[in-house]
């Protein structure tokens, strides 16, 4: 194949130990039709030394100040050349050595390829909630699609302008949510464990839930003001056991929002 199939991009700042773990899991993949990009935010620890240890396996890297994680992710996107992009940031790592081989073999030509996410806790590794089939708006209301387990077409990232650098935690959630609902992009769910997410990172910070809730609320109010009351209602249902009702309502909303195609 002449075309680069995957661009694996790692964002790092002052996390040398996590970076080593991430790089090692990338360079040990059995599938080799990919490029590897590292965007370091002018780390003051030994991160650059770690990068230099693996420089023969790294396609492109840079170490300079940035304006936050999503600015760094956009920088990686702008130098990427693969058909699909996966952001595997420092501390996170592939579930096994055959992940890319499995995805390349089983993937179809969709805009997003979404696999399973594993979560690293103090008590061990657990599988995150799998996305529902079909994917619903209610899922986005209450959860997310993990970017560490999602391969996104580079053309789609560029078409939709990359990640919103004004958000601290939820820009990846916003991107795929709007891509599917407003822009009618396609997705494929694969029953493959893609990566292990380090819960001790930014999204695991003590105030993360408050930031996530505020950012999601702002996005919903901005893009879906007429549906925001539905979000409030569905949010109240989350502790109830009426799964059939919840899924029916959320699926109806998802179909309606896609049909209306707000732009």
Quick structural summary:
This protein is of the alpha/beta class and 263 residues long. It is built from ten helices and nine strands.
Features:
single chain; 263 residues; alpha/beta; Spore Coat Polysaccharide Biosynthesis Protein SpsA, Chain A; 9-stranded mixed beta sheet; 10 helices; 9 strands; 21% strand; hexosyltransferase activity; Nucleotide-diphossugar_trans; Glycosyl transferase; transferase; Glyco_trans_2-like
Task: Please provide a written account of the structure.
This protein is of the alpha/beta class and 263 residues long. The protein has a single domain, classed as Spore Coat Polysaccharide Biosynthesis Protein SpsA, Chain A. It is built from 10 helices and 9 strands. The chain has helices spanning 16-27, 47-53, 69-79, 99-106, 137-142, 154-159, 171-181, 208-223, 228-237, 243-260, and strands at residues 6-12, 34-40, 60-63, 84-87, 93-94, 112-121, 124-127, 150-153, 187-198. Strands 1, 2, 3, 4, 5, 6, 7, 8 and 9 form a 9-stranded mixed β-sheet that branches. Helix 1 (16-27) links the parallel strand 1 (6-12) and strand 2 (34-40). Helix 1 packs parallel to helix 2. This is Glycosyl transferase.
What topology emerges from the helices and strands here?
Blueprint: E1 6-12, H1 16-27, E2 34-40, H2 47-53, E3 60-63, H3 69-79, E4 84-87, E5 93-94, H4 99-106, E6 112-121, E7 124-127, H5 137-142, E8 150-153, H6 154-159, H7 171-181, E9 187-198, H8 208-223, H9 228-237, H10 243-260
Parallel strand pairs: 1-2, 1-4, 2-3, 6-9
Antiparallel strand pairs: 4-8, 5-9, 6-7, 6-8
Helix pairs in contact: 1-2
